[in-house]
Amino acid sequence: MTDVPNRPVTIVTWHYVRDGAPGELHARTVAEFDSQLDHIAGNFTPVTLDQIRDHLRHGKTSLPENACLLTFDDGYRDHHDTVFPRLAARGWQGVFFAPTRSAGDRQVLDVNRIQFAIAAVGIDQVVRETRAEIDNARDEFDLPDSGTLYDTLAVAGLHNPPEAMFVKRALQTALPEALRTRICQALFERHVSADEADFAAMLYAGSDELREMHDGGMAIGGHGWRHQRMSELAPGDRRTELERSRAFLESLGIDTTDGWSFCYPYGAHDTDTVRAARDAGCDLAFTLEPRIADLAVDDPCALPRLDTNDLPR
Ligand SMILES: [Zn+2]
């Protein structure tokens, strides 16, 4: 009988790790991050993706007690400059999920365009300008007026006030994709930067940095091509997101024939999305469902993760 005594894995996810970031970025400061690493060192044993693979494939390889996997989303430059040297010094592996569009094509993701526009001019102005853009585009896209749309979407979320939820919902899902992108681009160009490639090079690690991290023992995974909510895409678009994620990893020199890892943008996944990931050759995929993973029970292509906010700082 196979003995699998230590199946729980605490998988933690970070985004920004930097000092002096505006509140919209929900960044950990470097000191907070260091103290979280100390907390992990005292309470957990970090494991690698391959240790998890071995455990799932061969069962007999047991994981250490209080196993922990460290993951980092969106491919920010912080991960190369600040996180990578710290994990390497401790002999730990981080798993870094980089979208193809930002890391490879040097374009700014819509989620970041919105964050930095809000950081520059405040949420109220972003709401006003988003509503004006919606009203300008009403005929073209057959939309309700922005007041009606505001009342529908501006419902306070768990961590966000109504205004922020309106911007989030309108610009991530509710509006037609072409209009969402147009508004995100306009806000970004008006308030953040007219040189997108230059801003992207500052914000994200590029292929060279990701290769360097991979050579230095870190794991790199896919995070979509355009960083879209996969569960809301048509099957063909979903496949494209996965194929371009995999091709990007291959372009970094990562062999994906035996499986590769993926992180669902915004954690958005459903049965079809998970199946599509598996069909694309992905063997480990990660959500944002906030609980401790149990490898004996959880689908390896829908593993839950705790947010960095759930760890002491
Ligand atoms: Zn993301």
Task: Summarize the structure in words.
Strands 1, 2, 3, 4, 5, 8 and 9 form a seven-stranded mixed β-sheet that branches. Helix 5 (110-121) crosses helix 6 (123-136) and helix 5 crosses helix 10. The protein has helices at 30-43, 49-58, 77-90, 100-103, 110-121, 123-136, 138-141, 146-153, 162-174, 177-191, 196-203, 207-215, 235-251, 271-279; strands at 8-14, 45-46, 67-73, 94-98, 219-222, 260-263, 282-286, 293-294, 306-307. The chain is globular, with a radius of gyration of 20 Å. Helix content is 48%, strand content 12%. The protein folds into two domains: 8-106 and 206-310, TIM Barrel (Alpha-Beta Barrel), CATH 3.20.20.370; 110-197, no CATH class. It is an alpha/beta fold. The chain contains 14 helices and nine strands. It starts with 7 loop residues before the first strand and ends in a 6-residue tail after the last strand. The structure holds zinc ion. The site of zinc ion has 5 residues, from loops.
Short description:
The protein is α/β, with parallel strands linked by helices. It is 48% helix and 12% strand. It is built from 14 helices and 9 strands.
